[in-house]
Structures are given as structure tokens and as C-alpha cells.
Specification:
The protein has about 290 residues and is of the alpha/beta class. It is built from 13 helices and 6 strands. It has one domain: SGNH hydrolase (Rossmann fold, 3-Layer(aba) Sandwich), CATH 3.40.50. A hairpin with a 5-residue loop joins strand 5 and strand 6.
């Protein structure tokens, strides 16, 4: 009997270690969604190994002492998040090239994965998302038959697109997550500006997310814009000079956050959750736990 107990214990340990981190429990607790900012994209690192990239979700998970899954995809736009024929920047070619793995593999859309995940992991307590910057990048590069099928909401007027199509897509995403029965916290993160002397483009993106999140119970908007503003303004509005973006060996900066910038985004999420519950982050997550 003693030997049998040892074998059972060893088998249980093996099964636990064979699963992704935290998957042996009823749920990881935290699902991160979004684009390259959440993914942790860094052009100086080898894209063949997703473990090289550390985005703000990893820092949030460490701060909250919660297990997480990061399903983000570099180049993801709001349409592609919902449909494999929707508006996309570079997420689809990134995903379907074996050389460039994501943090977690899935074959459908990011939304389909998210819905399946929260259904299968009923103890999920937090979902974060940053999205819609790639809508602007793709729109600015001009239309193409592969990204705007006739059924897709589209207008060449960029401000109008963000006031209508982007908000519509984000509403669809929020509604779809809630339709699964998930009633935990959803924390959208707004974007930082590259240059705080001219923030009109960033505000266009952020206003769409803020509009879609408005009035939704259990949805708290964390301001990535505010998180970077003070250090950027201290550097004359230049986020590169402030060390918030990845410095390039050839000079200047990439558009993606440096570790300093990433950590400020993570802190914005943690602070937003804490503020909603009078300082008790754990209490806030527990309050929304199914």
C-alpha cells in the first residue's frame, strides 16, 4: 500500500508538471489578450522563442501573485481578433509561420480562444486587453482585398472608423466574453503616446476603447496614457528620451515599451484594480470571482 501511495503521488506530480504552469488547477486566474504590447515584442530579440518576450501581463501576474496565460498576438487588430478574415496588420502571418510562435498556441481567432478559455477555466478572475492600434497602422497603409471583405465595417475616414467600426468591434469582444458566463474583472489598457507633444492619434485610439468599456459592470479602464505621461513630459514629451521605449543600436527607439515602460503599464493595471476596491487588489479579484 505504501508503494502504491508513492506511485500515485509520483504520477500526480508528473501530471502536474506536464501541464502548462497553473493548468493543473481549476484555472490560471488571469487571461491576457491583445497585441504586440501585451506580447512583449522587442525587435532586438530572437522571434523564434516566445519565452524571450516579456510583456506587461507577466509583470501584472507577478505583482498579483496570480497564474496567467498570455494569448496576445503581435499585429492583432480588432477585426482580426474576431474573425480570421477581419482587419489584420501582421498577426495572421505571424501566427501561421511556425518560426514565430506565440506564448500560447491556438488555431482560431484570439476571441475564440478567449471564450473557450474562460469557459474551461471557471476560476478565471481577471482578463486584460489592449487593442486597436493595429487598426490605425493597417488603415494608414491603404486597403487590400485580404483585409476588408464586403461584410467588414470599413470607412476610409480614419476618425469615423474609430468612432464606429472600432467601437463596434470592441463592443462585440466585450459582449462575447460576457456571453460565456465570465463575470470576473475585465481591464482594458489604453495606449501610451510616442510623443506627448502631439497626442491626437493616441487619443483617437483610446477614445474607442473608453467608449466601448463605458457603463459595463466589472470593466475598469487602466490608462497606459497616464502611466507614461509624467516621465515623458519630464523629458520634453519624448518617450524615447525618457527611456520608455526600446532603444535601438542604430539610434532612436522602437515603438514598443522598454522594461521601464512595460513596468509602468503593468503598474497602471494593478493600481486601477486596487483603486476600485479601496486598495485591496485581492479583495477586488475575489469579489468578482465566479
Amino acid at each position: 500500500m505504501r508503494k502504491l501511495a508513492v506511485l500515485v503521488s509520483a504520477l500526480a506530480l508528473f501530471m502536474s508538471s506536464a501541464l502548462p504552469a497553473g493548468a493543473a488547477s481549476e484555472g490560471h486566474g488571469y487571461l491576457a489578450l491583445g497585441d504586440s504590447v501585451a506580447f512583449g515584442t522587442n525587435p532586438l530579440l530572437d522571434e523564434r522563442n516566445a519565452a524571450n518576450f516579456v510583456g506587461y501581463p507577466e509583470i501584472v501576474a507577478q505583482s498579483l501573485k496570480i497564474e496567467h496565460v498570455n494569448a496576445s498576438c503581435p499585429g492583432e487588430a480588432t477585426g482580426g481578433f474576431i474573425s480570421l478574415t477581419g482587419l489584420d496588420n501582421v498577426c495572421r502571418p505571424y501566427r501561421f509561420t511556425a518560426r514565430f510562435p506565440l506564448h500560447v498556441a491556438y488555431t482560431g481567432t484570439q476571441l475564440a480562444f478567449a471564450q473557450s478559455y474562460v469557459r474551461d477555466n471557471p476560476r478565471t478572475r481577471l482578463v486584460t486587453i489592449d487593442l486597436d492600434a493595429n487598426d490605425l497602422f493597417r488603415l494608414a497603409s491603404g486597403p487590400g482585398p485580404d483585409v476588408w471583405p464586403p461584410s467588414t465595417c470599413y470607412t476610409p475616414n480614419i476618425p469615423q472608423y474609430f468612432a464606429t467600426c472600432a467601437v463596434q468591434n470592441l463592443n462585440t469582444i466585450f459582449d462575447a466574453l460576457r456571453a460565456t458566463g465570465y463575470n470576473g474583472l475585465i481591464v482594458p489598457l489604453t495606449y501610451y503616446a510616442l510623443d506627448y507633444k502631439n497626442t491626437s492619434g493616441t487619443q483617437l485610439l483610446n477614445n474607442a476603447m473608453i467608449a466601448a468599456a463605458a457603463g459595463r459592470p466589472g470593466v475598469l479602464v487602466a490608462s497606459g496614457f497616464d502611466a507614461w505621461q509624467a516621465p515623458a513630459l519630464a523629458a520634453g514629451g519624448d518617450t524615447c528620451a525618457a527611456g520608455l521605449r526600446i532603444a535601438l543600436p542604430t539610434g532612436g527607439c522602437d515603438i514598443h515599451p522598454s522594461p521601464k515602460g512595460r513596468d509602468l503599464l503593468a503598474q497602471a493595471i494593478v493600481d486601477t484594480i486596487a483603486a476600485s476596491c479601496q486598495g485591496s487588489v485581492t479583495g477586488c479579484l475575489d469579489r468578482h470571482q465566479p
